[in-house]
Amino acid sequence: MKSTSGRTVLCLLTASLLAVLDAGAGEVAANANTAINNPAVSARRMSDLVKELASPKYAGRLPGTAGDRQSLNVIVNEFKAIGLSPAGTQDYVQPFTTTIVEPDGESHGNPENPLLGERMATSNVIGIIPGNDPELSDEIIIISAHRDHLGQTPDGVHYPGANDDLSGLASVMELARLFMQHKGGNKRTLMFIAYGAEEQHEMGSMHHVAHPLPDFPNENIVLMISIDMIGQGYDKWSSFTPAQLSRYANTWFDEVYNGINDDSDEYSHEYPPQKEATFSYDAGPFGKIGINNRVFGKAEGIEHYHKTTDTWENVRFAPAAIVTKTIFDFLWKVDQDPRAHIKP
């Protein structure tokens, strides 16, 4: 199931020594020649982004608020700096509206949310790296996280949403940087998305599925991944050997197209094709229409989940960087797979 043409590159990527170079920087090598040719996955860079967007300046990034709009500008500028090509309906942006249903006072302790029930305008942010294989470039791999969170309480205490889901957003940014280093070598089109209104019952990803981008139809999406909360619960990854990390990447690859709803490890799972109206992750709307998907993240038993204490200081960036590098190895295998996967 491995790519013959990409085997040499894959060996370099997956057999290289995975090293945290500095406890402060937390940089994880992307390949054996990272120090010379490529930037590493940077825990420091991930930390900087999370610290900024989790700050009171963005007031918890509730869809349609000033904090939401300010965070949008940060993300668009990051996409531009990385070099992603715009793929939204308006440059990098795919606008939509949503109804505020969270925080609802029961599940999040915000009984006087002044925006509850209001219709608010927000957006997804979308950039791509075009594919280069004449036979496979129409196939799309979505790499996503969500950018919104729960706003603030009536007395002005904000929900930072550092782990949920700025940790995932920072991971998506690092993955985009790594793939840009291999631009020209990727076979398929790689689509990077920061979904809006995920906390409002996945309205951003539902809007995407219901309103496919003109040049990127749903039937061409061969894999959708959602990275949602990798900032806690992954401490063991700092002690995993390169061989253990490689086994995770290989297992995820083996499970992509096997037609089984795999949940083979505690750190990720496939979202089953349930016929539900709302979902628990942005992968849900894609799973519902039969698109291969995988969710990376832990919510069960995670401290600070949907609380005002989900702060930058409580995110574990070094293991999150290692997880991100392993996801890259997995996605590289998926991208380099020589088989066509668009369903006829």
Automatic annotation (TrEMBL):
Domain of life: Bacteria
Record flagged with keyword Signal: yes
Domain Peptidase M28: 124-327
UniProt cross-references to InterPro entries, sorted A to Z: M28_fam, Peptidase_M28
Keywords per UniProt: Signal
Keyword set includes Signal: yes
Signal sequence range: 1-25
PANTHER family in alphabetical order: METALLOPEPTIDASE M28 FAMILY MEMBER, PEPTIDASE M28 DOMAIN-CONTAINING PROTEIN
Protein name (database record): M28 family peptidase
